[in-house]
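Hi C.,

You asked whether I'd gotten around to modeling the 181-residue construct. I have! Everything is below, sequence then structure, no commentary in between.
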Amino acid sequence: MFKLKYVWLITLVMSLMLGSCSNSPAISQTTNTFNPEITLTTAVSDTPDPIEAYLVVIDHLLENRRIATSTRKYLSIDTSKLPDFTSSAKERLFSKLEKYNLQLFDKTYEELKAEGYAESGWSFPNGIFIILQDIRLKGEIITLDAAIYLDPLNAYGLDDFDVSWKDSRWQITRTNITWVA
């Protein structure tokens, strides 16, 4: 009987000790955060956040082209075509993009050209330009067109690209490379 109480007490103490570690970003269930250095599944949410879906798409674009971000200075995301994109949503998106260690812009290609960052012919020599557009939401599936530009001979686009809310996270469920330069 004494041993059973002792095991129960140790179990209770260990549970309390592990519970105090729940503020760790690898274990947190209260915030919906993304940390690329944590390989565990991070926060689980019951409500889909489109910002997380956009991040999945941006990460896919950068990984699919195997872009060495260390050779670039800038990352520009054209958010002008994102529906109902508030300033707080923009702040959340760009704070999560800081993981790439690039100077971040929220500019259209025309704005980049006017400010001298980009050249004609979709050339962005020191940067990466991403545009997300034609966004359609049907249930828990976001369908969109996405394109990434580095220079005239290094760009590609995806049309009717699907990101679905499954297992409490956004996942790419369909991609189509429709053009490559």
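If it helps when you're writing up: The mean pLDDT is 76.

Thanks,
B.
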